[in-house]
Amino acid sequence: MPERLITRRKQTWLAIGATTFFCACTWHNVEDLTIEATPPPLANEMDCPPISLEAEVLPIIETNCTVAGCHVVGTSLPHFETTDQVIAFAVQIDHRIRHWDMPPRPAEFLAREDMKTIQCWVQQGALDN
């Protein structure tokens, strides 16, 4: 009986360990494994045309951030539903997208051009324009 108990305990711990190991890192597809490890470089201020919050930044935020379950009322995340909220979190938005934190997988990462648009807007003072 004691040997059986020891064997059952070993099996239980082995099952827990295996489950933890296999669930600790999950990948939705092979592209997740090949994403660049370093964020794109900061946009050079000389390369930045004037960026409009209303015309250029908000459409990116609306398409990628203010979607159901993300940065909207009713979630624990910061809300980006008004220009004041987007401006207040401008630096954090720029940092998170450039370091591949947002949008979270399995959503697609922002296109580099969209990232550059947000970077330039932040470098220009995150103006309400």
Task: Tell me what the structure shows.
The N and C termini lie far apart (76 Å). This protein is mostly helical and 129 residues long. The chain has a domain at 36-123. Helices cover 48% and strands 0% of the residues. α2 crosses α5 and α4 (90-98) runs antiparallel to α5. The longest helix is centred in the first third of the chain and has 23 residues, at 2-24.
Tell me the span between the first and last alpha carbons. 76 Å
Model regions low in confidence, pLDDT < 50 over at least 5 residues? 21-37
Nearest-angstrom radius of gyration? 22 Å
Largest sheet: none
| Anisotropy-based shape | elongated
What class do helices, strands and sheet pairing give? mainly alpha
How many E strands? 0
Q: Helix share of residues?
A: 40-55%
Element pattern in H and E: HHHHH
Mean pLDDT: 77
Strand content: under 5%
Number of helices: 5
Task: Explain briefly what this protein structure is.
The protein is mostly helical and 129 residues long. It is built from 5 helices and no strands.
